[in-house]
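Quick one - first record:
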Amino acid sequence: MKYNHDVRGTAWEHVTIRQLLQHTSGVSWNEDYTNSQSDFSQLTQCEAHPNTYACVNNLVKDPKRKAYAKPGKAWSYSSGGAWLLGDTLEKATGESIAKYLQDKIWQPYGMNRDGVWHSYAVGKHDAGAHGFNATLEDWGKFGLFVMNNGTLPDGQQILPKNWVKDARSWNKAKNSVNKLHPEGTYGYEWWNNSIPATATDVAPTTSLSYQDSMWALGIYGQIIMVNQAQKLVIVQWSTWPKAEPSMLEQPLEASLMFNAIANKLAS
């Protein structure tokens, strides 16, 4: 990665930005939220360390960290990869993720309230993997920003023209394609949460197709659903009993409910 020289000599060295976005780096990372020894748990423990950035940086870029697949060949959600994506953005732009978001989108779009992004030091080193907070209304406005292909109210195009469509072009790497979603599970930090192919005894199933709908799915059920075809954005806050339930549990319930809402609005 030419924007982050720290990864030289590590398993991340030949991973592209696109592969980080898709979580197809092929670099080993244990995301288990219930295991106190997992990489994710160690990342959060680092955030209580007096030198947080160095602790997390050393964890993610540990030269002993191995690859389990060639970049682009296998999918596995990785907060380590998401953190590295944020770290790379900061190195490429020379400013914190929060400052970049504020100047490029948050203020120009006219969000109603300040957002809060977990930072390791004042004004720098924001946590690329997690830790962003905003009001429900502003999450919805961010969904509208995406629905409108990254266009500001003044008509300025912030995102590349085809970015949103590419973001929901579900990757076909191993593990992204499965029995639930043979079309693929994941795009550019967005999920495919359409009704699973195996869920044949539920309804409604057709309103929010996998071709048109993209879902931001946070742990414990924080959701933004964007459907450009229907010009529809739905935001949900939740306290699911599990951080990451099976796609046939609460995510399916959310998909069924959102489909029902879409059907009602279209009728």
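second record:
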Amino acid sequence: MSLNHVRPWRDIYRRKSRQIMVGNVPVGGDAPIAVQTMTNTLTTDVAATVAQVQAAAEAGADIVRVSVPDEASAKALKEIVRESPVPIVADIHFHYKRGIEAAEAGAACLRINPGNIGDEKRVKEVIKAARDHNCSIRIGVNAGSLEKHLLEKYAEPCPEAMVESGLEHIRILEDNDFHNFKISVKASDVFLSAAAYQGIAEATDAPIHLGITEAGGLVSGTIKSAIGLGNLLWMGIGDTIRVSLSADPVEEVKVGFEILKSLGLRHRGVNIISCPSCARQGFDVIKTVEALEHRLEHIKTPMSLSIIGCVVNGPGEALMTDVGFTGGGAGSGMVYLAGKASHKMSNDQMIDHIVEQVEKKAAELDAAAEAAE
């Protein structure tokens, strides 16, 4: 699917996949690429888990995954599902009965790992529970937990082994006439992940869940995810994504959206274009951007804001943004609206003023969108 006919060098043609439903969220086909995260609270602590789910949803998460390691967690899941504003995916490892219990508790999707869920008979029982409760399944292949026979065959985790693992599990689901599934082939190594995802994308029309597993901390994990997921998304591969960070789940959601926004695949909130600052800056760019990022978190309307320290690139960047501010001299700068120079504003008042202008523009865009419906 082409996303831009005016500038063909920005076109992305998404891989054609069939569409499934994760609760009320469509995944695959021509649906928007869904953003996911995962809670890191104890699932048995319902209040803490629900609070984390709600925070992730407020940040933009379309789907949230919750670990179900034991029977007590499966029981807690029912209440979490009831309180959640978004579909809940139950993360299942080792104990197939947890998958059955999670489906009964109302999970929208079961994430099962073919490397540790058990034999085919147990998988069939999980499939039956998913079908009975209108629950989708994610086949979650992971380089760190491949089946023993594949490690013996290939000697080490490799793209071929991961694809074969995924296809073996697809066969089990399809042999049981179950097609409401998506698949992931994750690794912590960017090269291994990318190659495995390209292989599985060619081998099946199932929706693909993208992720670089165990990517690391906020900075290093963001970089690895941006490289790995960004390149795959650019190739048109991926129907839903999760950025795996050793950080607050809200940060995962933010990074996931920023990756999608950078490729024009999703649009949400204010996209701030800002310079790194230098000796030419007419105001403190870094502190200003930090303040604006915080002050504008409540804006969900897709729009753009340029904050540039001087006139070298400021006017040119402002031409392409909804609201802009370019540093000048004598303690003031120029405010741009819809790409045109509008009026000057003093540096000491500009943050409040820019927030007002962004909020005003967001309201105008929202009203226009409502009128067009």
